[in-house]
Amino acid sequence: MHASLAVHVGDWIRTEILEPYNIKVNTVAEHFGVSRQSISALLNGRSNLSADMAIRFEKAFGVRADTLMRMQSAFELAQARAHEANLNVQHFNLVAPSRTEQRTI
């Protein structure tokens, strides 16, 4: 996925779940038993979705936690792919050991 197509899961939650129903950050934070800052950071893309938080959203809004986690993972991978050319790593050439080498190990 191209980085320009990737959407942070927090942005998706905000626009697709909270805003249409006029649900406030404070309300979600109180309902989940977490700080307003942690919800705000997620919704504004300043923090990533944890598995625990994904389960909270699943329980509260019915959106599967594994779907939310896949969205988060796709976003992170797209961000990494955007700068992968800067990662100076060469392919590791694997050579299977011969049978005699296997016996001595």
UniProtKB/TrEMBL annotation:
One of its GO terms (molecular function) is DNA binding. Keywords: DNA-binding. The keyword DNA-binding applies. This is HigA family addiction module antidote protein. Gene3D superfamilies: lambda repressor-like DNA-binding domains (1.10.260.40). Residues 28-68 form the HTH cro/C1-type domain. Pfam families: HTH_3 (PF01381).
